[in-house]
Each structure stands twice: as structure tokens, then as C-alpha cells.
Write a structure and sequence with these properties.
Strand order of the largest sheet: 1-47-46-45
Structural class: mainly beta
Strand content: 35-45%
Pfam families: WD40
Largest sheet: 4 strands, antiparallel
InterPro entries: Quinoprotein_ADH-like_sf, WD40/YVTN_repeat-like_dom_sf, WD40_repeat_CS, WD40_rpt
Protein name: WD40 repeat domain-containing protein
Distance between the termini: 42 Å
Organism: Nannocystis punicea
Radius of gyration: 27 Å
Number of helices: 10
Oligomer: single chain
Number of strands: 47
Keywords: Repeat, WD repeat
Helix content: 10-25%
Shape: globular
Length: 639
């Protein structure tokens, strides 16, 4: 029977299997054959790629080629070793194969080609991904036989792991049961270090025990056999705290400090393995002794272990991932290194030639890793760097931080140009850096208008005192030669090189937000009279105006009397809403994003250009040909 299997390396076989709904049978057949094979490295990699994305391909067969290409192209390559920070270059053994497949397909329409290795490498701990889990489905869970995985909340969702097929909500509830938390922990301010655990259904107090003197326990679980509860939370501001309390008698068997604040717990049926998440890492502990078995840098909002403890499912955003626990314990390379560090998600330079994601400085056109920048990161007791204190320009990258001060890197090669420790900025500062990275506006962040000034990045010299400015009332023009400042019922246009006022745009009400078009020709303003206005910057003339609508994103607040105030700010979401109105354009390329079913659609002119399995917001290169997040970098190919 095995000899009759169609060739896994034949693209036509894969395409027919996906189109006919038989891909799961092909995957299962080859999994059995390769389990007994001694040397089938290329096929193992292709099989792993199909297995990870099986559920997505079953749902969206047209994504077969894109999914396989973007995973196997990078397998065992020099680029993968560079991005993961470890591994060896084996010559990218599948690159020629997948390129031949691409050539044979011809131009079947645009697709999203990855310019970097996948976040998690093939043949590592990641086994499967399931996209489209909605917020109402609750924490992830395995069925009793571990053959089904999903979320069993108010509207259950689940998938058969062997086939990748999504079950109906009714069948999902049947297979998953009711895995809701059996216990809850309640904290009392006067009782730090005390674990008070209640049965959620009956409300009965199960445990009331002093564990230590400085922990705040936020979550709890009861072991399947009812012999103990595990509580977790945080202590000493940063450290995670986990303790096992045996029942009856409420004896503390073990208590450990690990990672950061723990917010999710899981265990196997026997209670011999405990998994915990602090948001940045998953920790595996021996359930009997509390000894640390492994810590893996994986982000997860919630998690669950299979009954036998062999697999772990995590949930992050709307994606469920299934992991091999044995591989996690072996410490295999887990994900791209440095992408989750620093205080920046993703940004292209104005010319699109450079991209930064986390600490990774890359070529914005071909994805090549240029350098890992030693950026400031989490770890500040009272907050970190200012929200907008970083800027990638065409020839430099600027970071303003509370530790090292103002640091400037060369964005061509990632070398550090200068450090000024005398200028230190924290989260209490409002910082806006110009697109060319040579100027910035600074002031203390407050709810009310703030005194701000225009300064030079290189030496900190003050170019102009800007006066009292409302929050989010500052915007540089793309050429960095003009600065728009909202102050009261005016928007003042400053000449940046001279530090002088160039023009004034007067409003009948206080200005609440200002944004500049990507071509620098016009600006949009919002005011407390509920009117949006578009201005010609060269002449200062008003192009047109309209009232705010229900579709315009606004910041809402309420007075003590219950009166509502709606304030417009120039947020990315608000500016996208205005795309094309009176000639105003924020992007210049006309493409927008739409999230649905665990995918991101890149839409232009009412049609989908490409579908991308990205779970976080993507940002676009200036020409709209490339898109990126912390872990993704795509080019729209074959368009």
C-alpha cells in the first residue's frame, strides 16, 4: 500500500490532492512511510510544511503553493541560520525544487512571497497551526483522546488534527466538553503572599494558605486527580511565582520563581508536567518537584497540555499552535532571534530600502539581514522609552531611551554613529522624530497641552520653542522641512531649518489632531467642532471639509454628568479612513488591510491582491509592494 503512494515531491500531486480534498490522506500516508525511513530529509521538510499549514490549506486550497514555498524555500539555508541566530547552512536543498514549481505554475496571479524564513523553523517543535480562532472561544483545549484541538467557549471551534478539517460548533462542543476553569484565586490587598482558591461552580473555599510574603496570585488550576492546586502570579515587581499546594491539608509542596508575571497554567492528566506562560515565554516544570524542565521564548495568551503531556497547544491572538513537548525540552531553535526585542514592531525607511523589525535591520527590498541593533527593551519599573522615540530614516536609525539617551545608527550597515547620554527620555515624554531622523519635537507627556520644543537630533540644540501643544498635535511633512503644530484654534506651519513660522491655518474651534499627506501637498485637521478639514499647505487655503461620521475613529470621553465628548486624533486608523478624500492620501499606494479568518487580505481597488497568514498588523513599504510585521516580510509577487 505504501509503495502506491503518489510522489510527495511532485507539485501536480500536491495540487490535485489539495483541490480534491485528499491532502490529509497524502500527509498521513507519507508520515507513516517516513517514520520508518533512514534518510529522507527533503521529503521530511516538505511533509512538515504541509502538516503545519494543513488546516489552512484544507480551508483555502489556493494557498497551497504559497504556504509550501514560504516554508521550504528557506529550509537549511544561510539566511535561516542568520535569522534564527543558530543552525547550519546546508545549501537550501529545496530551493531549486520550489522554484521549478513556481516556474511551472506560470503567472496565476499575485501572491505573498516571504522575504525571510518563517518565524518557527521546519523540523523544530512546531507541529501544527490553526487560524481563525475568535475571541469568544476561550482558552485552547485538547479533546480527551488529543485528536481534536480548539477552543470551547460560548461558541466552540475545533479542528480534527489528522485531517485539518474544522468541526461544526455542535460537534466541537461534544468533542471538547467543558474545559472551563474549575477554580479561581481571589486576591486581598491586605494578604500578600496568601493563596485563596475557590471552586468556581459551588463557590466553596478550597485553599486558604500563606505561601510567601510577597506574591500576588492571579491564576490557579486544580490537578485532574484533585490532589492539588497550582497557583501563579508575580512577586518583586518582575518575577513570576508558581506554587503547588497539596490537598487535603493545604501543604505547599513547592514554590518557584521563574520568568515574568504568570497569567496562564496547564497540566497533564497525571499532574507530572506543568506548563505556565508569562506572555513572553512558556515554562515547563516537573509537577512533582517544581524543577524547571525547559523555558521556551514563545508568546501565548493561554495554553493547554494534552492528557499524556506529549503536546502543548498555545493561543496567541487568533492562532492556535501545537508544539511537541519533547522537542521543546531538547531546546531546538524556536524562532527568529531579535524580532521580539526592542520597542519597535516594524517600519520601512521613507525610500523603502531599509526595514527594521524589533532589533533586526534588514534590506527592505530583498529581505537580507544587515545587522542586529542593540536597542533598548523592556525592564523598566515605571515604563520604558517614549512611544514614538524611534525613527528609521533613509541613512540613519534614531532611538531615544531612558537608559543610554539618544543613539544614532548608520542604517546602511547598522554601525553605531553616536551616543548622547545627557539626553534621556522616558515614557513620560512626548517625542516626534522627523522622517529624515535629524529633528525632533519633545515635551513632557500630559493629558493637557504641553510646552514643547523643536530640537536637533545630533547635538540637542533647540531650534524653536513651539509653545503649548495638545497631545497628538504635531506632524512633520515628509520632506522634514515643515512642521505642523496644533495650538488652540490654530495650526502653525513651522520652517524647520530656520525655526520660524511660515504660515497659520486658523480654525473656528480648538484643533484636536493633524496629519500630513504622504506627498506633503496637503494636511488634514480635526477640531472640537466635529469637522474634518483638508488644507493646501503651499497656499494655506482650505480644500474642503465635512462633519465627523459614525465611521470615523474617535476618542470618546464622558463628563461626570454623562455627557459624551468625541475627539478626532490623527491615528493611522483615522487617516486610512480618509484615503483619497479631497486628494488626501496617507499611503500613496492605495492598498488597505482587512483581517478575517486568521488571515490578512491586502486589498486594492476593491479586490484582494494577496492573502497573508499574518496574525498581527502589517505595515506597508512606501510603494505598497512589500509588507512587514515583527516576524513577517512579504513582497507581492507575480502581480
Amino acid at each position: 500500500m505504501a509503495d502506491a503512494l503518489p510522489d510527495l515531491m511532485d507539485p501536480g500531486v500536491l495540487e490535485r490532492a489539495a483541490a480534491d480534498g485528499d491532502l490529509d490522506r497524502l500527509v498521513a500516508g507519507w508520515a507513516g512511510r517516513l517514520a520508518a525511513a533512514d534518510d529522507s530529509a527533503p521529503r521530511r521538510a516538505v511533509l512538515a510544511a504541509l502538516r503545519v499549514d494543513l488546516a489552512l490549506i484544507v480551508r483555502e486550497p489556493e494557498l497551497l503553493f504559497q504556504c509550501v514555498y514560504n516554508r521550504v524555500y528557506w529550509h537549511a539555508s544561510a539566511e535561516a541560520a542568520a535569522f534564527y541566530g543558530e543552525g547550519t547552512d546546508e545549501g537550501a536543498p529545496l530551493r531549486a525544487w520550489v522554484e521549478r514549481w513556481r516556474a511551472a505554475r506560470g503567472r496565476r496571479g499575485p501572491w505573498a512571497r516571504s522575504l525571510r524564513p518563517p518565524e518557527f523553523p521546519l523540523l523544530g517543535p512546531l507541529r501544527e497551526e490553526y487560524r481563525g480562532a475568535r475571541p469568544g472561544e476561550g482558552a485552547p483545549v485538547f479533546s480527551a483522546d488529543a485528536q481534536v484541538v480548539g477552543g470551547a467557549g460560548a461558541s466552540a471551534i475545533a479542528w480534527e488534527r489528522a485531517t485539518g478539517r474544522e468541526l461544526s460548533p455542535e460537534l466541537a462542543r461534544q468533542r471538547l466538553g467543558d474545559p472551563g476553569p474549575e477554580v479561581e484565586v481571589r486576591f486581598e490587598v491586605q494578604a500578600w503572599g496568601r493563596a485563596r482558591v475557590y471552586d468556581r461552580q459551588s463557590g466553596a473555599l478550597l485553599v486558604d494558605r500563606d505561601v510567601d510574603s510577597d506574591s500576588k496570585f492571579d491564576c490557579a488550576m486544580r490537578l485532574a486527580d484533585g490532589t492539588a492546586v497550582v497557583v501563579a502570579g508575580w512577586c518583586d515587581d518582575y518575577d513570576g511565582s508558581i506554587a503547588r499546594i497539596d490537598l487535603p491539608g493545604a501543604k505547599v509542596r513547592w514554590r518557584v520563581r521563574i520568568g515574568g508575571s504568570i497569567h496562564a497554567l496547564a497540566s497533564d492528566r497525571a499532574g507530572t508536567l506543568v506548563a505556565a506562560s508569562d506572555g513572553a515565554a512558556i515554562h515547563l516544570l516537573d509537577g512533582t518537584s517544581g524543577a524547571t524542565l525547559a523555558s521556551a521564548p514563545l508568546a501565548a495568551h493561554s495554553l493547554a497540555l494534552s492528557p499524556d503531556g506529549s503536546t502543548l497547544v498555545t493561543r496567541h491572538e487568533d492562532v492556535l499552535r501545537v508544539w511537541d513537548v519533547a522537542a521543546l525540552r531538547r531546546g531546538r531553535p524556536l524562532r527568529i532571534g531579535g524580532a521580539h526585542e526592542g520597542w519597535i514592531d516594524a517600519a520601512f525607511s521613507p525610500d523603502g530600502r531599509r526595514l527594521i523589525t524589533g532589533e533586526l535591520l534588514c534590506d527592505g527590498r530583498d529581505g537580507r539581514l544587515i545587522a542586529r541593533l542593540d536597542l533598548d527593551g523592556p525592564g523598566y519599573l515605571e515604563g520604558g522609552p517614549p512611544v514614538e522615540g524611534r525613527r528609521l530614516a533613509d541613512d540613519r536609525f534614531v532611538e531615544m531611551a531612558p537608559g543610554r539617551g539618544v543613539v544614532v545608527w548608520n542604517s546602511h550597515d547598522g554601525t553605531q554613529r553616536s551616543v548622547d547620554r545627557s539626553r534621556r527620555y522616558g515614557h513620560t515624554h512626548t517625542i516626534v522624530v522627523s522622517p529624515d531622523g535629524r529633528w525632533y519635537v519633545s515635551g513632557r507627556r500630559q493629558a493637557k497641552p504641553t510646552e514643547m520644543r523643536l530640537c536637533a537630533v545630533d547635538d540637542g540644540s533647540v531650534r524653536a520653542e513651539l509653545g503649548s501643544i495638545a497631545p497628538d498635535g504635531v506632524a512633520f511633512a515628509p520632506d522634514s522641512l515643515r512642521l505642523l503644530v496644533a495650538s488652540g484654534d490654530e495650526v502653525i506651519v513651522w520652517s524647520v531649518p530656520t525655526g520660524t513660522r511660515a504660515a497659520t491655518l486658523r480654525h473656528p474651534a480648538a484643533v484636536t489632531g493633524v496629519g500630513v499627506a504622504c506627498d506633503g501637498r496637503c494636511a488634514v485637521t480635526g477640531a472640537s467642532d466635529g469637522v474634518l478639514r483638508v488644507w493646501e499647505l503651499e497656499s494655506g487655503e482650505l480644500r474642503g471639509s465635512r462633519l465627523l461620521t459614525a465611521d470615523d475613529p474617535v476618542l470618546r470621553s464622558y463628563s461626570s454628568g454623562g455627557e459624551e465628548t468625541r475627539v478626532w486624533r490623527a491615528t493611522p486608523e483615522a487617516l486610512v479612513r480618509l484615503e483619497g478624500w479631497l486628494g488626501f492620501s496617507q499611503t500613496g499606494h492605495g492598498s488597505t488591510l482587512r483581517r478575517r479568518d486568521g488571515l490578512t487580505d491586502i486589498v486594492a481597488g476593491g479586490r484582494v491582491r494577496a492573502r497573508v497568514p499574518a496574525q498581527v498588523r502589517l505595515v506597508a513599504a512606501p510603494d505598497g509592494s512589500r509588507w512587514a510585521s515583527r516576524v513577517d516580510h512579504f513582497v507581492i509577487a507575480d502581480e
